[in-house]
Amino acid sequence: MKNVEDGEESLRKMIAERKEKLNPEMCSCFIDAFLSRKQNLEESGIKDSFYHDDNLLYSVSNLFGAGTDTMATTIHWSLLLMAKYPHVQDKVQEELSRVIGGRQARGEDRKNLPYTDAVIHEIQRKANILPMALPHKTSRDVTFQGYFIKEGTTVFPLLTSVLNDESEWASPHTFNPSHFLDAEGKFTKRDAFMAFSAGRRMCLGESLARMGLFLIFTSLLQHFRFTPPPGVTEDDLDLMPTVGFTLSPPPHELCAVSRQ
Ligand code: HEM
Fold first, then answer.
1. Of 241, 230, 258, which Cα lies nearest the Cα of 74?
2. Which of 146, 150, 176, 251 shows a CA-CA span of 20 to 30 A to 90?
3. Which residue ranges make up the annotated binding site?
């Protein structure tokens, strides 16, 4: 609880600083945009909108909460999987060197990096970091595929069942980037890729997360080769997740060897 309170306190400070410097003509972040809308509504005499201080604090706190652990855990998985499957890492590094060389990757490079794109998707499928997404409550009685669900029932979307569905994936329990490649090696989208869930309440940060994962993963693999530490083999690297709010890889030591 102490950490939650400290977190809220620093967000309150951040919000107060942005409030002081607010220039509605030059909004540079979510807080500015929220405050500027709040100001507009108040100036037009609307005082009971959803744009109030508590909603701003909890929205910012939700964005941090939802966006930090998820990203860090996925990057942890990506390094472990690259160290465990060096032949996959070889192919990513070959593709990166051939297509973009030494310069930093940009969002638009993704379409020219089908293997790398497939590997990132497969990392997310295999890592399955939010196996039960988030719980939802039905707002009215529903009949879904013949099942009656009463209003007020808590529903967990089991993403694991889709990400490991044997009728969807050639080898659901194996790390296999070909799940996202066609016969010509082109990237292929899969409806059963639901790491960000589905429907109206699916991940709000999906496009930010996808861009972040692409830029961080490519940059790390351009600069470093990830290997098990001396005396440890690839087979020794354990993929059994530890259970928490997200499914994280078990703690590992890895070597990051500079490629420069
Ligand atoms: C690898 C990264 C991420 C993964 C795998 C992920 C996955 C998910 C999943 C499975 C949900 C639950 C959807 C549902 O309720 O069915 C969710 C919700 C959410 N995510 Fe993400 N997420 C990631 C990164 C982010 C980032 C970077 C942000 C924003 C900065 C973010 C913001 C949110 C928010 C606000 C919700 C709640 C949406 C709602 O309830 O309407 N996520 N995410």
1. 241
2. 251
3. 203
Burial of 240 (C-beta count, 10 Å sphere; 0-12/13-18/19+): exposed
Domains of the chain (ranges plus CATH)?
1-51 (no CATH), 73-132+160-258 (1.10.630.10)
Q: What token pair was written down for 213?
A: 């994962």
Ligand 1, closest atom to CA 157? 16
- If one residue of 60, 62, 70 were mutated to test the ligand 1 pocket, choosing by the most ligand atoms within 8 A of its CB, it would be 70
Given ligand 1 and candidates 203, 206, 215, 248, which is best to mutate, with the most ligand atoms within 8 Å of its CB? Answer: 203
Residue found by looking up tokens 């194996």 in the block:
174
pLDDT in tens, the chain (260 residues): 888 888 889 999 999 999 999 998 999 999 999 999 999 999 999 988 999 999 999 999 999 989 999 999 999 999 999 999 999 999 999 999 999 998 999 999 999 999 999 999 999 999 999 999 999 999 999 999 999 999 999 999 999 999 999 999 999 999 999 999 999 999 999 999 999 999 989 999 999 999 999 999 999 999 999 999 999 999 999 999 998 778 999 999 999 999 98
Q: Whose CA is nearest to atom 13 of ligand 1?
A: 202
